[in-house]
Amino acid sequence: MxxxxxxxxxxxxxxxxxxxxxxxxxxxxxxxxxxRAKLVRMRHEMDKFMKDVIGPYADAGKGGAGxxxxxxxxxxxxxxxxxxxxxxxxxxxxxxxxxxxEKNKLLKISGSRExxxxxxxxxxxxxxRMSGSFERVLELPAECEGKxxxxxxxxxVLEIVLQKKKxxxxxxxxxxxx
Length: 178
What we know:
The protein is of the alpha+beta class. It has two domains: about 1-55; about 65-175, Sandwich (Immunoglobulin-like). It has two helices and eight strands. The strands form two sheets. A four-stranded antiparallel β-sheet has the order 1-2-7-6, with no helix packed on it. β3 and β4 (about 105-115) form a beta hairpin. It starts with a helix and ends with a strand.
């Protein structure tokens, strides 16, 4: 038994030494890189596929809560005097939108949209519109004042204009949407 184990270990060592002397060739490395690129591309395609298929229905059993607003899209622009944030919030009403500024730098946008009544009838082919609540937290590019924050909501777009800070100390400011 010892001789058999010794022979196996000896052949493994010899094989490893032979491989170490020759090693992988440049062609082997190119093949590895091509395989890696294909696997990465395949993973991205699978992620995209799963997001398309499962994403809208992930919490369907929970009434859609937690889905709506998870991917709120924002534009942030900065000038010498102010920071402007635009958020796409389709289907919202302005009284359901909450905005707070914390520590002069953290902007929180949250809200909710009423749950749609689900009806099972033969006329419904597909139902993708989501409802529920959301919260988006954004670190602003500069510290801003809590005074004179302007928030307007028009045609599904929320626009928030904040004046840059001028030595003002404030913790949490609640903003009303107009």
